[in-house]
């Protein structure tokens, strides 16, 4: 297989009351992956599809410094959104790593959750290598009435993917009794030591904590439903669940503390993110109920007012024209008088008109926020269709923000699709042709009719 680099770009938009997704580019990268080069690739791709940069509401990427700088340079910092899935991955990896203790002399880290995971990993590897142990594991399950096709196997994790470690631990705990009996019946230096009862209890508490975050990782990975508005609420709910856990063993307590510290460090200022805060407020399921800091809420309400005013720049033209006519009449009748304050009067009227426009926008926002939130399982898009007559300006903003993808998962799924197209027997496909094939494969069945 040829070693080539590609970047995948997907788009998300409203089509009626449905959120649509599409692939607009799987571009081969033939230069160094600098931010300038990646920015040019972004701009060229959207230009080829006739998408104006001003129409791009947000760009969701991973946390790579080069890709982030490319987006900020071409689209502006306020339109960049970091992938929630990558952020969660960093939170857990750092949280687990920080449970280790560092030796003051050697600077070597040891103990903590990684040490427990290593013990489990050694046992799993033993069963994976030993045919006899694996056969015995299966025969014990059969003797307990489990059918051949439903016999479970131990899961070996990929150390760079924390959720695979969670699945490994979860399976290990559920089969710990059988594993213990098999290991105790065997002799030899190659047989690993079974975990102590204390270690098993610690693992169970660790599994409960990681299980909460594993549930979180599945929440934002959808492409067909409103997701950007869920990020702030789901992060707050996750932190609350972790806080409410009452671990007994020190290793689990330490992990709980480190996870909460990482959440505070990496997600503590989400309320100040304009994309996420606007999306959350414009979702009738959440509105402002998850805004903890008054300053953040006040700032985003002012932003909404400014966005509404920008949508309706000529809202008060008639009133302004009437005022100008009155001014002309007054100046005609008093043409012999020189008004030193004429400039001030003009600026005063502009300020009053702006204040009046802002008050209309604020009235609409406050009326919307005073209305009760809808149920969590209800569709916010359908709700906006029902209330758009009462809140026309907010409805327009909702159509701009609620389809934003919360993660870069849709573009990363392209790697799997691309792998199905560029196989060992088709490894000379040109990048331009590969992009077209991936695009055609991504089209929904309705577009082929």
UniProtKB/TrEMBL annotation:
Gene Ontology MF annotations:
protein dimerization activity; zinc ion binding
Q: Which UniProt keywords apply?
A: Metal-binding, Nucleus, Zinc, Zinc-finger
Spell out the InterPro entries in the cross-references: HATC_C_dom (IPR008906), RNaseH-like_sf (IPR012337), ZnF_BED_domain_contain (IPR052035)
Keyword Transit peptide on entry: no
User: Where is the HAT C-terminal dimerisation domain positioned along the sequence?
Assistant: 364-442
Cellular component GO terms, alphabetical: nucleus
Domain of life of the source: Eukaryota
Where in or outside the cell it occurs: the entry states: Nucleus
Q: Does the keyword Nucleus apply?
A: yes
Protein name, per record: HAT C-terminal dimerisation domain-containing protein
Source species of the chain: Macrosiphum euphorbiae
